[in-house]
Amino acid sequence: MPSEKTVYLPDKNVAKNAHISSFAQYKEMYQQSIDNPEEFWGEIAKQFHWENPINYDKFFTFNFDVCKGPIYTKWLDGATTNISYNLLDRNIRNGHGDKIAFYWEGNHPDDYSRLTYKKLLEEVCRFANVLKSKGIKRGDRVAIYMPMILESVIAILACTRIGAVHSLVFAGFSADSFSERIIDCQARALITADGVWRGEKYLALKSICDQAMDKCAKNGHNVEVCFVVSHLERVTAPSGVQSNQSNKTPMQDGRDIWWHDVVPQASTSCYPEWMQSEDPLFMLYTSGSTGKPKGVLHTTGGYLLYAATTFKYVFDYKPNDVYWCTADIGWITGHTYVVYGPLANAATSVLYEGTPFYPQNDRFWGVVEKYKVNQFYTAPTAIRALMKFEDSLVTRHDLSSLRVLGSVGEPINPEAWMWYYKLVGGEKCSIVDTFWQTETGGHVLTPLPGATPMKPGAASFPFFGVQPVLLDESGKEIQGEGEGYLVFSRPWPGMMRSLYNNHDRYETTYFSKFPGYYCTGDGARRDADGYLWVTGRVDDMLNVSGHLMSTAEVESVLTEHRGVSEAAVVAKPHPVKGECLYCFITTNGQVEFNAQLVTELKKIVRERIGPFAQPDVIQSAPGLPKTRSGKIMRRILRKIALNDRDIGDISSLADSSVVDQLFANRPISA
Length: 670
Ligand code: PRX
Hints:
eight-stranded mixed sheet, 31% helix, seven-stranded mixed sheet, alpha/beta, 22% strand, single chain, binds adenosine-5'-monophosphate-propyl ester, 20 helices, 670 residues, globular
């Protein structure tokens, strides 16, 4: 396996034609972006349409220091624009009307379609007009709970056309989680589909939405209109499974509307709503360490520049390339690198509905071959799951079109990196290990294809405009080699501006620990060559298959069970998921800790949060290791999860005998 010193140089053919073809060029551009952000981003902004022109005196202002007043970031203040206009009308004017925006590949290989830029604009305008006809207007929030289908992109862009703020929720979240998010943002409208097949699994999306809307109503919030795409009828169900599920879709009079009943007859033109650069574009919930999800708010002008620029350089996208990001549209990666970044570059992308394993475990490679994909972007958890299968599943496909391979969502381990690099990339692709967050809006640390010598597992260097700093516990900057808190000392255009309706929480969560810096919540190490290696979360967050969740959120669900008095959750390393949930449960004497309880607890987590949050291990904990002040020592619980008896100093424990008991209680399967 490669060591920290192993370096892979970019392939000569990748470097020769790359937008940024040497490390020296990267460094020069980076320095310019830091020394003169107005000029750097101003030049990029010229490619886009600004209805109200840019005022260079107010191009970029910010305050990151809570001691100096409220935290804020503003880019291109005063300029107005419309994102859908820039992604669609502008590209059509530039001659890309007949270019394919998306190749849609269904769950079943027999299902596929495509959409040009011209057609996409028409569909966006139609749906924007429908939204308007239902009274949805600038500033209103629209909740979206959709599968990976073309209407999802249309719905997103239709919101931006009229200035409504979209709030997507990954269609794997439970009705409870969804309703909590709808209520928090007070969404007036909801957009969904009847259902979807993911592999051989059927997801009844509309009925989850119905449950969510019922819960909202019980909490005093009524969703006024719910649009439903009839998707099931047009797709092929997995063989042997009942196909026409849509007959069963219940529709509520006066609230629910089939997409096909209103969209086809709507007008294909819709004048764009000109938005201020700092007007909200969308919000997207991410887990908070206190348990309550945070509505991360992104705004218009800066986000557009950042999505466009990161997409172009990090994937080295060229006009005739075909790009594919496997992320779900319900996560930030889907927002920035399925929708906004590619469309801002008039790119052609693949939009894939299914899983890597259906109908066979080589589906990803079959799709790469089918569309001659040049840039492929996925998560380490998928890579780890796929590398378990025999190599021939990869090698039997022609993957010679690939030039750039991306990774996102969690650290990529060197084994997975090497497999990706050698087997999938044939040792001729650049691997871009992109570190970023829902909050950062786009890549912030990443290698660049053609420019950055690669070290397996290192997110490497900052993107343009990003100034990373490592801090020690006292807030002192670590120069040169060392490990510390990963923070940023200034905003880049695409960073979040606030938490929806909760600016105080924004300031305390991200800016109070180290005044003057945005705190990522991750740790990082800088090696002797200046490469940054993200070491993982420094707070109580877990990253399961690239899905971030907080220990508090899972613990509070577990303690809802009538038999549980206390719960503590820690992350345990997992060979495919990266991390999995290991839960310690103290019962309250009303129920016995047994297999039935374990099943019930797993079910509660699935129902309240979503299937992706299901714990791997639940063990009985008659007592938890606590300090005298009552704080749970998670460090010790992590050791117990690993069955590692080297637990270090336990002198601060109120009762150290619980440790032995917990080791003894480890389930055999753990
Ligand atoms: O811990 C980092 C991890 O994922 C977190 C952000 O999660 P989320 O907001 O859901 O966004 C995921 C997609 C951008 C980070 O705080 N993370 C993300 N990418 C990497 C990573 N950790 C290490 N290396 C990465 N490339």
